[in-house]
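ugh ok fine here u go
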Amino acid sequence: MMNTPSNIKWPENGVTPDWWYHDGECKEQSPLSRQEGGSHYKKYAIQPVEYAMANNLNYCQANAVKYVTRYKDKGGVEDLRKAIHNLEILIELEERGGKLG
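structure:
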């Protein structure tokens, strides 16, 4: 998460932009410091996308991590079913030598 200095100049309309000024210099805000469509990932010490990328997870692995991480805050049992679905696809890939059937 980004710690924002107290001397930031924000736009007059109060909307937090993707950029901000600090000591007269324009800075970009990291996409990981904001979230589109909710706030269910921002409370975690590490976001699922950060974990997935740091560990070179494939699509199915990353989705399973994402859904299991957020299920209590967003989709409940449906997110757990989505995680299972991604794991089932991953199992099929493993059993068929990387090919879906």
